[in-house]
Amino acid sequence: MDKVGVGIVGSQFIAEIHAESLAGIPNAEIVAVASRTEAHARDFADRHGVAKWFTDYRELVQLDEVDVALLALP
C-alpha cells in the first residue's frame, strides 16, 4: 500500500499523541506540521523528523503530499 501523507495542525499535547500513534502505522508518514508560532512548529518538526513546517494552516492543507490533515487543536 502507498504511504499516506499526514499533516498535523497544531503542535502541542494533542499533536504529540497523534504523532506517537502514527509512528506505529507503517504506511502513514507525517509530512508537515503547522502551528501558530514558528518556534513550536520547528520544535515539533525537529522532534518527529518532519521535513516541512508552517505558521499558516492554509499552506499545510494545500500541499500535494498531504492526504489527511489531523486537527490537533483544543
Task: Give your account of this protein's structure.
This protein has 74 residues and is α/β, with parallel strands linked by helices. The protein is built from 3 helices and 4 strands, in the order E-H-E-H-E-H-E. The chain has a 4-stranded parallel beta sheet. Strand 2, helix 2 and strand 3 form a beta-alpha-beta unit. The mean pLDDT is 96.
Give the SSE order as H and E letters.
EHEHEHE
What is the quaternary state of this protein? single chain
Q: Helical stretch count?
A: 3
* Radius of gyration, CA atoms, in whole angstroms: 11 Å
Spatial strand sequence of the major β-sheet: 3-2-1-4
Query: Could you describe the largest sheet, including whether it forms a barrel?
Result: 4 strands, parallel
Q: Could you tell me the strand content as a percent range?
A: 25-35%
Label the overall shape. Answer: globular
Mean pLDDT: 96
Category by helix and strand content:
alpha/beta
Secondary structure: helix percent: 25-40%
Describe this protein with a few key phrases:
single chain, 74 residues, alpha/beta, 3 helices, 4 strands, 36% helix
Topology (elements, then pairings):
Layout: E1 4-9, H1 13-23, E2 28-34, H2 38-48, E3 52-54, H3 57-61, E4 68-71
Parallel strand pairs: 1-2, 1-4, 2-3
Q: Could you give a quick summary of the protein structure above?
A:
This protein is of the alpha/beta class.
